[in-house]
Amino acid sequence: MSELVSEHLVPVAERDDIRRSIPMSELVLHDRFEAQGWRVRTDERLDRIFEERCDWVRTYGRADQLAVDSAEQSLTYDQLDARSNQLARFLRLRGAGAGDRIGVLLDRAADAYVAVLAILKIGAAYVPMDRGIPVHRMAAVVGDARVRTILSSSDVAGRVERVDLVGAEVVQLDRAARLIDEQRPYRLTDAERGMRSGALAYITYRQAADGMPTGVAVDHRSVGNFVKVAAEVYGIRPWDRVYQASPSPTSPSRRSGCRGRSARRWCPARQASPCAAGTCTAS
């Protein structure tokens, strides 16, 4: 019986390269042949998974490990956590909170990652937006997703201002930088998070057959489960490098931060969509 079990399961605990980098408590026996169950609790949140990874990085002496490395700026896990906490509190000051949908229209990789985490921390859902799409499609996304606020910057805000925002407010983060920096960088309390069971993490849009965007809403449990399962199934380790070519903040590159790797992004100023090419790399 023991031989049957050993052949049926992937013996990850026997691999020295994994054992040296990952606590035994995080190792999961993966069944090659049977359907796998959920790896997350029903109330688990993606922002919490990221914070747990920040704590793990610090505990294991990797406080200087990069989470985002782009042409404009590099951020360690602690820095990314602190900056997203500050932006989250700034959003709360503006009345944003649980259940809201907040658009993200940013060219700089570091700013986009900070914005996504901040939105998740307050219990809102983010809606990635691409300034390269036609104006009428952008307006359709804003209206369909019921976007309340759009986080942008002064260099791309002009594009948004030409869109019928259907009541959405555009916030230029670079112009609000001073007020954001005044916010406390510490972790948000449960009261500040406004946590809700089954809350959406993001809404992503694709072009339908009629040329108009169609949305897909993804909750925290689904994306959190993907984060944990992907590392097991693909054998991804903290020091691995994973090529990432998708421009969307919903891509695996962004999720890689929850697994202890850094997201290294290349952002040519002339690219129509934010962060059009990049890699995930371990420091």
Secondary structure layout:
Blueprint: H1 2-8, E1 9-10, H2 16-19, E2 30-31, H3 46-59, E3 66-70, E4 74-76, H4 77-93, E5 101-104, H5 109-121, E6 125-128, H6 135-144, E7 149-152, H7 157-161, E8 169-172, H8 177-181, H9 190-193, E9 200-207, E10 213-219, H10 220-234, E11 242-244, H11 252-255, E12 262-266, E13 277-281
Parallel strand pairs: 3-12, 5-6, 5-7, 7-8
Antiparallel strand pairs: 1-2, 3-4, 9-10, 11-13, 12-13
Helix pairs in contact: 4-5
What does this structure look like?
With about 280 residues, this protein is α/β, with parallel strands linked by helices. Helices cover about 35% and strands about 20% of the residues. Helix 5 (about 110-120) links the parallel strand 5 and strand 6 (about 125-130). Helix 4 packs across helix 5 (about 110-120).
CATH C-level name = Alpha Beta
- Please tell me the total number of domains: 1
Integer-rounded radius of gyration: 19 Å
Going by helix content, strand content and strand pairing, the class is: alpha/beta
Distance between the termini: 42 Å
Shape: globular
The CATH homologous superfamily is named: ANL, N-terminal domain
Task: Give a quick rundown of the structure.
The chain is α/β, with parallel strands linked by helices and 283 residues long. The chain contains 11 helices and 13 strands. Helix 4 crosses helix 5.
